[in-house]
Design goal:
The protein is of the alpha+beta class. The chain has one domain: Alpha-D-Glucose-1,6-Bisphosphate, Chain A, domain 4, CATH 3.30.530.20. Helix content is 23%, strand content 45%. A hairpin with a 3-residue loop joins strand 4 (63-68) and strand 5.
Length: 143
Amino acid sequence: MPAGTTVTLGSTPDGRRVEVAREVGVDHRRAWELLTDTWRWSEWGPTVHDVDAPTRFIAEGSHGSVNVLGAVWVPYEITSCGDGRWTWDVARIPATGHRVEPVAEERCRVVFEIPPLAAGYVPVCRRALKKIEAILLADERGL
């Protein structure tokens, strides 16, 4: 099992992005469910304190508000969602993309796509990926 998180420059449907990725030992569908479940965003998103969303799971066009660092509520809209990838605008600004790729049976790669001008967000995404892995593995064990 590859250890740790990788940071590379990649090409996405939205152009060049800094990709922060980590392999996790769970089926890709489980990782996708966690990433699209607004009720669980605050569990793994270091800057997400709370979410106000009309539906639990996102889809393209979904919108709501996210409480950042417990200080301010900002609106979001899901700009794309499907085929293991979702993107959003936060306060009308394109924000981090989210992607899940199957690697093997019971193994996937979770990726955050960061616009190059926001590369300072890499440490936050590294923390989020560690939390995502811990949550998914704990869920797998029924903890």
